[in-house]
Structure formats: structure tokens, C-alpha cells
Amino acid sequence: MDYIENTLMKCWTGYAALFLSSANQRISDKSSHQFFKLDSSAKASISNQKGVNPQRGYSGIGGESFKRFALDGTGEDFVDIKEHFDHGPRNDTCFPNQWPPETVANGLIGFRSFMETYFDTMSTLSHQLLSILETALKVPAGTLTSRCSRNHNELRLNHYPATTIEEIRNGTVRRTGAHTDYGVLTLLFQDRSGGLEIQDRSVPATEVQFMPVTADDPYELVVNVADTLQRWTNDVVPAGLHQVTIPGNRRDEVGGRLPDRFSVAYFMKSNREELVGSLPEFVSEKRPAKYEHVSAIDYHKSRHAVLYA
């Protein structure tokens, strides 16, 4: 177990991401592809209501705008060209889920059941990872996991339509602009298209350089730390800055077509009423508290106010 704990800490504090082989947990390509094949009216019927609340349903291209965070150091004005479908825990009365119709014609029979089961599976895995982190950080069991006990998490299907290297190079579009997630952990599966990059922490943070994440194995799970965990640990475990752009193996090409890209992200989040400031276990005279105590839902809404303005 010591080896696992040490590896986890080394990845999240030094390399910005943890990579796991998860052959039996990958979501079905068919589920994601079939959803995004729905016609525009079907997707619009379950459209996410733009605003500060947790996302539920379908969001079209340009719905998110990471350029407003300006974390890549370029200052470019770009559009994030992706569409996505989000849902939260089943029977969420505060922020109800929206589901597409399931018919033989649209190929989505069993879609909701499959997604809800997958949501529960990823919830179990994320709690296991957070429990291991508690041991690695030498804090009492439950210090972190108890604050995520209500599974106020979200599952997202992402589709990045085909684009060109030229469009990305001229700064008008990004597949996803540089950002950190604002939950606790993000568990990501991606297809073989490539393009995911994580911050290179071997260079000064002021330079904001990225390194590509290989996408050779579609059964590899990428696990990023998000803002809430960074805030709780008072920067002991920093959030992973990442983006989606030109694949690493095509960086030297001046032009060409980039095919559709698909990924699935599971966002582990805090209980909505929990405070997301620096926890006393990570505060000392030498490391004073850096983050004020606000509720998780208020913090998330403050981020959404920028992202979906």
C-alpha cells in the first residue's frame, strides 16, 4: 500500500495527473456516439439552461468559454468547439437531470440506465482514490471522503467535432481552452484521437507550458486533481491545469484535418453545503490558510458565472 500511496502523491503533486489501467470500466463508445448523432431538435429539447447552476442536459458548441479564465498565457480570443451532455446523481430534486427519448430509431434504448450505473461505478472508484489519498496525506480517515458522501457528482459525455490544425493555430478555436476543474477529482476516459495536454510542472508556472498525454490506450483512465481538493489541502495537492488542442504527434504539421474526438469525464464533487476553504489539518504557522471558507455550491456558481457568462 505504501507504494500505491507514494505513487499517487508523486503523480498528483509532481506530474499533474494519475494514469490508471481500467479495462472493465470504460464507457461504451456506442452510447456516446449515438447520443451526439441525435438531430439538433432532439438535443435542444433537453438543453442545459445556461446560468450558474450545475449543468443538466445538452450544451452546444461555444456553451463553455474557457478563454475567460485566460490561464494559457496567450490572451487569444477563441471559441471552445465542443458539445457535451451532463447529468448528476439519480433523483436529484435540486437540479433534476434531463434525458433524451430512448427509441429503436435513435439507438438509445437503455441509455439512461447505462449512464446511471456507470455514474455509480465511478463514484465508488473516486471514493477509493480519495481514501488512499487520505492515508498518503496522513490525515484521519474521512477527512476528505466524508465531505463527498452525498455523491453530488457529475458525469459528462464530450464530443469535439472535426476541425483543422489551421483553425487552432490561428487562435480562433480551441477544442478546450486551458483550465482546472473545480470539483475534487476528475476521472477521464478518452478515445485515441489525442490532443489532451497537462501542464509541464518542470518549468516555472509563470511560463505555462504543456506536455501531451498519449492516447494510445482507450482503457487508460486519467485522474486529475481539481480546485476543491487544492483548496482543502491548502495547495499541498495542486489542481491539474489542462487543455485539449493539436495532438502531440501532429504538433509539427502546419495544416490538416483533425477527426472527431470523444471523451467521458466524471467530476467528483464535494457535498454542496460543505465549506471548501483550507482545512485545519493543512494549516500551520509555516503554511497559513490561503483559501476562505465558502460553500461548495457557491464556489461552483462563482466559477459558472465566468464560464457561462
Task: Write a structural description.
It is built from seven helices and 15 strands. It has 309 residues and is α+β, with helices and mostly antiparallel strands. The strands form four sheets. It has a seven-stranded antiparallel β-sheet. A four-stranded antiparallel β-sheet has the order 8-13-10-11, with no helix packed on it. Strands 3-7 form a two-stranded parallel sheet. The model has no long low-confidence stretch (mean pLDDT 88).
Summed up, what is this model?
This protein is of the alpha+beta class and 309 residues long.
For the residues shown, what is the average pLDDT? 88
* H/E element sequence: HEHHEEEHEEHEEEEEEHEEEH
Gross morphology: globular
Determine the fraction of residues in helical runs and give it as a percent range.
10-25%
CA-atom Rg in angstroms: 19 Å
* Percentage beta strand: 15-25%
Oligomer description = single chain
Total count of helical runs of at least 4 residues: 7
Major β-sheet profile: 7 strands, antiparallel
What structural class results from the helix and strand content? alpha+beta
